[in-house]
TrEMBL record:
<dbReference type="InterPro" id="IPR050466">
    <property type="entry name" value="Carboxylest/Gibb_receptor"/>
</dbReference>
<dbReference type="Pfam" id="PF07859">
    <property type="entry name" value="Abhydrolase_3"/>
</dbReference>
<feature type="domain" description="Alpha/beta hydrolase fold-3">
    <location>
        <begin position="24"/>
        <end position="276"/>
    </location>
</feature>
<dbReference type="InterPro" id="IPR029058">
    <property type="entry name" value="AB_hydrolase_fold"/>
</dbReference>
<comment type="similarity">
    <text>Belongs to the 'GDXG' lipolytic enzyme family.</text>
</comment>
<dbReference type="GO" id="GO:0016787">
    <property type="term" value="F:hydrolase activity"/>
</dbReference>
<dbReference type="InterPro" id="IPR013094">
    <property type="entry name" value="AB_hydrolase_3"/>
</dbReference>
<protein>
    <recommendedName>
        <fullName>Alpha/beta hydrolase fold-3 domain-containing protein</fullName>
    </recommendedName>
</protein>
């Protein structure tokens, strides 16, 4: 995110035809205070997912802390989902008025647009995006945003038509809690250690709201507002062996399983937090394997045949 307004960066498959493509909204990591949707690493990761899945990937830029504390990043994420619905509806209006469609050949390269929502219709998205097959993909703290946006999508229901969140991918979500898990005790001093993460939460949450059991940090707090877990979309969770946050992510997935949500956990051995999205590790075998695993699982939820059976 650069500057004061929202921004997004999109990636499309190299070869596009007349078919409508699913849309992935991707939320980058960075511990609330750093990272960008148009960084080299994030761009390469989004390109990889666009190619593997044959989808449009929209890398979302959200405002960062400490200048913009909670709930700004969450609200920015939700605004993007509402913007996607707006684009789809405006595209239908334009179609009924006889507006011409734009060739996909103009959008084979990534593009960046600032002032999200300022323009009426993004022609590339109107021509090629299928918002009824929308996937939320979040990396680290971006996974927290994806979790929030999914809950709000469920609450909104038909108000988001034609947008429908059919699946989400949570990559090593940045969850915490006041009662430490085994991994939080055993791996507290591992890569991206717990002390640093505590500082990041202090920078992100308003001082008067700071708590490791804040709804933004702990998805399993009793009485957490929002729809019951049984209404959540299918959720694919990525965890790493040497990531102290792993146990809480696994626990969240287990609670989803208990209410019959498709919620597999893929646990990568000898891996650290952000192993599949860090610039220095993107070309590693594990990073490629993780992207392949995500693609295989997501495809069953965005396929036209299986789409009608999503949550």
């Amino acid at each position: 995110m650069n500057g004061g307004g929202l921004a997004y960066r999109g990636c499309t498959p190299l070869v596009m035809d007349a078919k409508k493509l699913p849309v992935i909204l991707q939320f980058h990591g960075g511990g609330w205070v750093s990272g960008s949707n148009d960084s080299m690493a994030n761009d390469l990761f989004c390109r990889r997912m666009a190619k593997l899945l044959d989808v449009i990937v929209v890398g979302v830029g959200y405002r960062l802390a400490p200048e913009n504390r909670y709930p700004t990043a969450f609200e920015d994420g939700l605004e993007v989902l509402n913007w996607l619905a707006k684009q789809a509806n405006l595209a239908e209006c334009n179609k009924s008025m006889g507006s011409s469609r734009v060739s996909g050949s103009e959008f084979k390269k990534p593009y960046t647009v600032d002032a999200l929502g300022a323009s009426m219709v993004e022609p590339w998205l109107a021509a090629h995006g299928d918002p009824s097959r929308c996937v939320l993909l979040g990396v680290s703290c971006g996974a927290n945003i994806a979790d929030y946006v999914a809950r709000k999508a469920v609450e909104s229901g038909s108000l988001l038509d034609p947008v429908r969140v059919v699946a989400r991918v949570l990559m090593y979500p940045f969850f915490m809690g006041s009662v430490p898990t085994r991994s939080e005790i055993r791996l507290a001093n591992s890569y991206f250690d717990k002390a640093v993460c505590l500082l990041l939460w202090e920078l992100f949450l308003p001082k008067e709201e700071f708590s490791l059991d804040h709804p933004a940090a702990n998805p399993l707090m009793p009485g957490r507002a929002g729809p019951p877990l049984k209404f959540m979309p299918p959720t694919f969770t990525v965890v790493a062996e040497h990531d102290w946050m792993r146990d809480r992510a696994i626990a969240y997935s287990e609670e989803l399983w208990k209410v019959n949500v498709d919620a597999p956990v893929y646990d990568y051995k000898d891996a650290v937090h952000e192993f599949a999205t860090l610039a220095m590790l993107l070309k590693s075998q594990q990073a490629r394997a993780c992207a392949d695993d995500i693609a295989i699982w997501v495809k069953k939820h965005i396929s036209l045949r299986g789409h009608e059976f999503s949550y």
